[in-house]
Write a structure and sequence with these properties.
single chain, about 450 residues, alpha+beta, Multidrug efflux transporter AcrB transmembrane fold, Alpha-Beta Plaits, Gyrase A, domain 2, 3 domains, five-stranded antiparallel beta sheet, four-stranded antiparallel beta sheet, 13 helices, about 55% helix
């Protein structure tokens, strides 16, 4: 009896934790004339965990924007295209993270060996023009020093630019030499400006350029567009500079974000863009939850009618299984690798509920066979679990293999479906073998 009781206390502890994790945040709830507030996140903050316990919703639930981008690889060698595509993906991830979008999905795809694409899904962001501007800008920042017409003739092709009748030569200083940027406001004009902080190597380059170009203009060009061309008044040795273009606060912030994230290694063209309204996501979520609750009620009724007391015990275990899985979804939100729930993921969760019941049915039917063979109830329980285990193990392992293949080779919502299904299968095995078995042992003892 010691082992079943130990397992029972373990299940009780897990259940209490699961209930706590799944409790909603309550504000000004009146009960018996008193007002109550409850927020589990306050306890997490005392443990130095600043991320809230919440379900991470995907694009199809919370609304947002989906973009398909095509990379222009015509100037990239064939052997370097895969690396360039991954580099572009990293730059986009940096821009999205700096922009503050939660749970973005960014994936690369190669079609017919010459069509390189990046799919970007941004939950909660529905301004498609803002998304296009954020992601599609190449952000190639270069610095050009003013030279005489004679020096311009001697410079290599592509290294000279003619701006308003003056010649400028490209320097070795670029956006790659910038460590960080920020948006400030000019103390005299009040206009927004972008402050540049160079790396140690960049600061050295900038000091050398400003030293030799005192009295000349230094052009700052972003994506072949002149931002400004100020006159160098003196050498700047500290590695700090300011761009005073005709900025609004929004455009200054946008430029700062792009420069902080880095330049795209290849130009990107937007092939398609879709905006999903949050109302569509809410409607889909409500229908999915209704389907899940209805399915749960039908399963519980079926098990109770068919197996009586055994079915009631299995239904309790199924309820705990649901609590445990939802707790894992919520707990994952405080980790860097959280589980993002999509409609496909909810479908995988509902499917795993049916698989959890399937394991109980195998066990109960095996127990019936042992009882018909004249075994005692205690013996039938133990033999039912031990002899049904191989079938449960093999069927669940085959499902896990399928989920792994879908997760490795799938994209987008297919990955979400596979991950949620795999988690559900693992917890269902624990529910059927540990929870149901412990309850049966204690009830029949």
């Amino acid at each position: 009896m010691r082992k079943p009781r130990s397992l029972l206390w373990l299940i009780v502890v897990f259940t209490i934790l699961a209930v706590f994790i799944n409790l909603p945040v309550l504000h000004n709830v009146k009960l018996a004339g008193k007002t109550f507030n409850f927020d589990p996140n306050i306890i997490l903050q005392k443990l130095n965990i600043n991320k809230p316990l919440t379900f991470r919703e995907g694009l199809d639930l919370s609304g947002g924007t989906s973009l398909t981008l095509q990379a222009d690889m015509k100037d990239i060698a064939s052997s370097e295209r895969a690396s360039a595509l991954n580099s572009a993906k990293l730059v986009i991830e940096n821009r999205v993270n700096l922009f503050g979008v939660s749970e973005p999905v960014i994936q690369t795809t190669v079609l017919n060996n010459n069509d390189y694409r990046i799919t970007v899904e941004l939950p909660g962001l529905t301004d498609v023009n803002q998304v296009r501007s954020l992601i599609g800008t190449t952000a190639q920042l270069t610095f050009w020093e003013e030279v005489s017409s004679q020096a311009a003739k001697l410079a290599p092709a592509g290294q000279i630019a003619n701006v308003s009748g003056s010649y400028f030569k490209k320097t070795n200083l670029s956006g790659a030499d910038i460590s960080s940027t920020s948006v400030n406001f000019n103390s005299q004009t009040g206009q927004p400006e972008v402050a540049l902080n160079f790396t140690s190597a960049g600061a050295k380059k900038f000091a050398e350029i400003t030293k030799r170009d005192v009295g000349k203009r230094l052009a700052i060009i972003l994506d072949n567009q002149l931002i400004e061309a100020p006159t160098v008044q003196q050498e700047i040795p500290d590695g700090n500079a300011v761009i005073n273009g005709s900025f609004t606060t929004d455009t200054a912030n946008q430029l700062s974000l792009e420069l902080n994230a880095g330049a795209l290694p290849v130009p990107l063209k937007v092939l398609s863009s879709n905006v999903i309204a949050p109302t569509l996501g809410v409607s889909s979520l409500q229908k999915s939850l209704f389907a899940g609750i209805l399915g749960f009620i039908i399963i519980v009724s079926f098990m109770t009618i068919l197996y009586g007391r055994l079915g009631a015990i299995a239904s309790v275990a199924l309820f705990l299984y649901t609590l445990f899985v939802l707790s894992i979804f919520k707990l994952s939100s405080i980790t860097p690798y959280g589980i993002t729930l999509t409609l496909a993921g909810i479908a995988g969760f509902i499917l795993s509920i049916g698989m959890a019941v399937d394991a109980n049915i195998l066990i109960f039917e095996r127990m019936k066979e042992e009882l018909r063979a004249g075994k005692s109830r205690d013996t039938a329980i133990e033999l039912g679990f031990s002899r049904a285990w191989t079938s449960i193990r093999d069927s669940n392992i085959s499902t896990l293999i399928t989920s792994s293949v879908l997760y490795i080779f799938g994209i987008g919502t297919v990955k979400g479906f596979a991950l949620v299904l795999a988690i559900g299968v693992l917890i269902s095995m624990f529910s059927a073998i540990v929870v149901t078995r412990t309850f049966l042992r204690l009830v029949y003892k």
